[in-house]
Amino acid sequence: MKKFAVFGNPIAQSLSPTIHQMFAQQVGEDISYEKILAPEEGFVGAAKAFFAQKEAIGCNVTMPFKLDAYNFAHVDDAAANDAKAVNTLMKTADGKVSGFNTDGIGLVNDLLNNGVVLKDKHVLLLGAGGAARGVVSPLFTAGINKLTIANRTLSRAEQVAKESQYSEIDVMTLEDVTSITPQIIINSTSASLNGALPCNMSAAFLSKCEAVYDMVYKNSPTPFMQEASKLGVEKSLDGLGMLVEQAAAAFTIWTGAKPDTAEVVNKVREIIKR
Ligand code: ATR
Fold it and tell me: Which pTM was predicted?
């Protein structure tokens, strides 16, 4: 049986096995997909042990190992190189391990699935951590016109902008965001995990906003999504679709098959509501 896995720490809450088993069922494959809790300093050993198995095909990598995976793998993928982070590994014919980053394309595909037009838009990205880095180049590839990165710590936003290959990036602190009127706002900060808003919100700030996206997903809309809806933003989306779409892109890398993601998003939505 083909073997897959997801590495993280913690990993118990991961929905990846559920999602990939649904994809496998759709395409009539019988796979094994396990959660592997690697020690904080022990990712490379755990990944080598996994890939030493004859039936191992590929794995996903989540917090805090995406940089370790980037350094461990052979990386040709532009999204992974831009983000300096890898979330998908695959064993190649010569026994080496290739690395990819499907997080950004997962976000872009979920926005497009939900009817959000990215072409020529001004996007505000809140946060400048690992999650933010992964989406910068896929957003430009999708045709956005301008990106503003706002972060609590300005220097981290400056660093992300400096390391990217794009010149159309402005940076600011979270306090200053109400001075602009972005068309799409993406929250990659961890504020929602603590039930907090990532930044000040006002009707004027949101006057041109067509959609807000929170990379977090919970069993109910986050405070950021709720506030945006209250202030008149038509679309407020959470990160569950991004999770499923990044998984689908990984599944396609491993198997060549393109799963039906809409069906899986609906099923997983039911699971997280329980
Ligand atoms: P991830 O890989 O999920 O992006 P990370 O690299 O730890 O995680 O980054 C967390 C992001 O959330 C950072 O942008 C962080 O801001 P700082 O760079 O200033 O630390 C942001 N963040 C965390 N808690 C926040 C809060 N309560 N309000 C606003 N931003 C917050």
Answer: 0.95
